[in-house]
Amino acid sequence: MKFFIDNNLSPHLARALNELCAGQHSVTHLREKFDHSTDDVTWINTLAKEGNWVIVTQDRLSKGDMEKEAIRRSGLTVFILAKQWTQIKSWEKAQKLVHWWPKIIEQSEMVEAGAAFEIPCKPATHKARFKTRKL
Prior knowledge:
By secondary structure, this protein is α/β, with parallel strands linked by helices. It has five helices and six strands; from the N terminus they run βαβααβαβαββ. It has helices at 11-21, 30-33, 40-50, 65-74, 90-110, and strands at 2-5, 26-29, 53-57, 77-81, 116-119, 131-132. The protein has a six-stranded mixed sheet with strand order 2-1-3-4-5-6, sandwiched between helices. Strand 3, helix 4 and strand 4 form a beta-alpha-beta unit. Helix 3 (40-50) packs parallel to helix 4. The relative contact order is 0.17. The model has no long low-confidence stretch (mean pLDDT 90).
């Protein structure tokens, strides 16, 4: 499985997740594959052509219909951090995302491509669930 971390999350976090997944999955930050100023529709369409990518973003996908439509058409699975994630500091964000990561992998492997989920800001427990997100 290939995971793609959007520009609104730290490249350091993406590298850490990639190391934790070594040998099983890959985690790539936007800046490792594209110029940092690449517009969302361009990188979404590129990933869609390559296939088998899962996007993890903090973007609320509220910039406009073009971005949402590109995600819908892409057939890519996307995980969106809930709004509350924007209120926490980088170390806590890293801790929570690492804690959620096994559930993100598991969910990605179970669903048909093109699904969208919101990752709650609460701790990942055995009862914690993703909220299905409509784009």
